Amino acid sequence: MLNNFNLKKKFTIMLLLILAFALSVSGWILSSVLMENAEREIAAKALTLIDTISSVRAYSVSEITPELSNKLETKFLPQTVSAYSAREVFEILRKQPEYNDYFYKEATLNPTNLRDKADSFETKIVNNFRANKELKEVSGFRSLTGEDIFYIARPLVVTQPACLQCHSTPEVAPKTMIDIYGRNNGFGWQLNEIIGAQIISLPAKRVFFKARQSIVIILLIVFIVFITIIVLVNLFLKRQIITPLKRLTRIAEEVSTGHLDLDFEPPSNDEIGNLAQAFKRMQLSLAIAMKKLKRNPDSNPDSR
Question: How far is residue 184's CA from residue 190's CA, in Å, rounded to a whole number?
Answer without folding.
Answer: 16
